[in-house]
Design brief:
globular; about 325 residues; seven-stranded mixed beta sheet; 15 strands; six-stranded parallel beta sheet; alpha/beta
Length: about 325
């Protein structure tokens, strides 16, 4: 590792007290040094995700071993490597999943949780890949077992997760249904490949999906809402279907009618990504890369970018996350071309 040219300190973003976007603070911290199989990455861009908002509000503390700097995904240039690194070298462009520390000028990441930036991707696009694509891959395809010819329902179809799930599922050969909160959002989902996009403010998705599937329902549901959506999801999932829970926007409690689950032999599962081990995330990274790299090379399944903000404007970026948006919000730490 050659750290001679590195600065001693860097700017990072934290949320010392829970609150709204104005609770975010920039401060100076020492530049970390990589160890083991870690890379030190000069961060060009960092994705902004719903878990960051939850951490800011005091509802999603960092897992053991992680620091309090916000941010779960980055893209940038490798500027130093630890002695155990095998796959990357100084000067490589990488996009990576981190357990913390993304909202910063430099970040360390285990090389097994990093992927090369695809040819033709900007750093902004690359920074929008790891958290969202890893989450969709492990939940829709590994836990949900979605296969070609099956049907997927995605709630929040215009979100970063939703826009990714639509594209990957269509590429897999599945038919995609989504819900979204406006006609503009529904239309964007259709342009990405959703067969049916339902404005949940205007229609009841349970009755609509029953009508459109002749009562069969869908094979897999990907849900970020929870609350009263859980029982409604159980009503629309097909026999031998899978319901996958990845967030709890309506809260962690739900009342369900088990008669919607038992006769249909529904598998109800869910997961979080942040606290999983480096090794578990490495397996997700490898499987995702095998499937998505050829698609990226063809110009398919690229992340949808809503807006970008400078690191110094992180408060505005979180205000955008709290407002209606389509796709990913990204922070640019450096010129992220």
């Amino acid at each position: 590792m050659n750290a001679a040219a590195l600065p001693e300190t860097m700017t990072v973003v934290t949320a010392p007290e829970p609150g709204g976007p104005s609770a975010l603070r920039t401060e100076s911290r020492p530049v970390p040094r990589p160890a083991g199989r870690e890379l030190l990455v000069r961060v060009a861009a960092a994705g902004v995700n719903r878990p960051d908002v939850m951490q800011r509000m005091g509802n999603y503390p960092p897992p053991p071993g992680a620091n309090d700097v916000l941010g779960l995904e980055i893209a940038g240039e490798v500027v130093a490597v630890a002695d155990g690194v095998e796959r990357f070298a100084v000067g490589d462009r990488v996009m990576a999943l981190v357990a913390s520390g993304g909202y910063s000028e430099y970040a360390v990441v285990d090389e097994r949780n990093a992927l090369s930036v695809p040819e033709g991707f900007s750093m902004v696009e690359a920074a929008a890949v790891p958290e969202t694509f890893f989450t969709v891959w492990t939940n829709v395809f590994e836990r949900g077992g979605l296969k070609a010819g099956e049907t997927l329902l995605v709630h929040g179809g215009s979100s970063g997760i939703g826009t990714t799930a639509i594209q990957l599922a269509v590429a897999r050969g599945a038919t995609v249904y989504v819900t979204a909160g406006s006609e503009d959002k529904c239309e964007r989902c259709r342009t990405l490949g959703a067969e049916v996009a339902l404005n949940y403010r205007a229609v009841d998705f349970v009755s609509e999906i029953h009508d459109r599937t002749d009562g069969r329902g869908v094979d897999v549901v990907l849900d970020m809402v929870a609350g009263d959506y859980v029982d409604r999801n159980l009503q629309v999932v097909a026999v031998d279907g899978r319901l996958v829970q990845i967030a709890l926007m309506q809260g962690p409690q739900a009342t369900i009618d088990l008669r919607h689950l038992m006769p249909k032999r529904v598998t109800f599962t869910g997961s979080t990504l942040r606290a999983r081990s480096v090794e578990a995330k490495a397996e997700i990274a490898a499987a995702l890369a095998d499937f998505a790299t050829p698609l990226w090379a063809e110009g398919r399944c690229r992340p949808v970018i809503d807006s970008t903000y400078a690191l110094a404007d992180v408060v505005a970026a979180h205000e955008r996350m709290d407002a209606p948006h389509i796709g990913k919000v990204v922070l640019e730490t450096l010129a992220a071309g």
